[in-house]
Amino acid sequence: MYKRILVTLDNSPADKTILEHIRPLARMTGAEIILVHVADGYGARLQEQLNLQDSEEIQQDRAYLRQEAARLSAEGFKVRDILVKGQEPAEGILAVAQEHNCDLIAMATHGHGVVKDLILGSVADKLRHTTRLPILMIRAVQH
């Protein structure tokens, strides 16, 4: 059914929610898990454009992705971790999905609310309107 599942992570408690849902699905289908974090702030964009050394924040993001990948790998999953810098999150996610022939995008949604999403935009909403790939959206558990 699924061969490669792209899982978006944003280094927040929401990551635990989506990973809890993906583990059994990936185990059942034998899918590879591709963990993706998009560093999209001004600093990340500037670093990418000027080919500057990674900031401490980017280094922390990379270390977090590697830690999650190592945890999943230790559980027997085939996993890759990819840090995307300097792109809008939806564009970066779609680019990775296309490049790695993913057949499912999985993400936790924060449920900010309609007004905040209208003002800031919602990555989930942008993905939903831009791709033909199935998207699994799980509402993050609020702690």
Structural write-up:
It is a single chain. The protein is of the alpha/beta class. The chain has one domain (4-139): Rossmann fold, CATH 3.40.50.620. It has six helices and five strands; from the N terminus they run βαβααβαβααβ. It has a five-stranded parallel sheet, with helices on both faces. α1 links the parallel β1 and β2 (32-39). α4 packs across α6. The radius of gyration is 15 Å and the shape is globular. The N and C termini lie far apart (33 Å). The relative contact order is 0.22.
Layout of helices and strands:
Elements: E1 4-8, H1 14-29, E2 32-39, H2 42-50, H3 56-74, E3 79-85, H4 89-99, E4 104-109, H5 114-120, H6 123-130, E5 135-139
Keywords:
143 residues; 22% strand; 5-stranded parallel beta sheet; 6 helices; Rossmann fold; single chain; alpha/beta
Order of helices and strands: EHEHHEHEHHE
User: For the residues shown, what is the average pLDDT?
Assistant: 84
Strand order of the largest sheet: 3-2-1-4-5
Compute the number of strand runs: 5
Task: Determine the structural class based on helices, strands and strand pairing.
Answer: alpha/beta
Gyration radius over CA = 15 Å
- Strand proportion: 15-25%
Could you tell me the CATH topology label.
Rossmann fold
Q: Could you give a short account of the major beta sheet?
A: 5 strands, parallel
How many structurally independent domains?
Answer: 1
Q: Which spans have pLDDT < 50 for at least 5 consecutive residues? A: 113-120
Helix content: 40-55%
Named at the architecture level, the CATH assignment is: 3-Layer(aba) Sandwich
**End-to-end CA span:** 33 Å
Name the shape in a single word.
globular
Number of helices: 6
CATH H-tier superfamily = HUPs
Q: For the record, what CATH class applies?
A: Alpha Beta
